[in-house]
Model the fold of this input.
Amino acid sequence: MWPKYDKPFFFHFRDMQTFSAVTVCMQPEAPDSKKFRAGLACCSSIDNFSKKIGRNISEGRANLGNTTIEAKDLQDLKTKAHQMAKMAEQVYASQRQKQ
Done:
């Protein structure tokens, strides 16, 4: 059961091998909804990681509503955020290799 919560959840993940970071925002669609709009902000190894900037960027992208996920509880939400961060890291790594 979800508490009534209308503020976004933020998760910050760092990859210590590449020193990159990903911030994931999960914005509830409604205060009692299990559906969330998701947004990501990726920070490369040459950027100076800032949680504040990551929160602003990821929240703006979540508000666009392009990606929606459903979670049964907070742990499931965190797991899905971590999976999204891992996918973003893989895309970032593959693009780095092309350069």
Q: What stands out?
A: The helical segments are 51-64, 74-98.
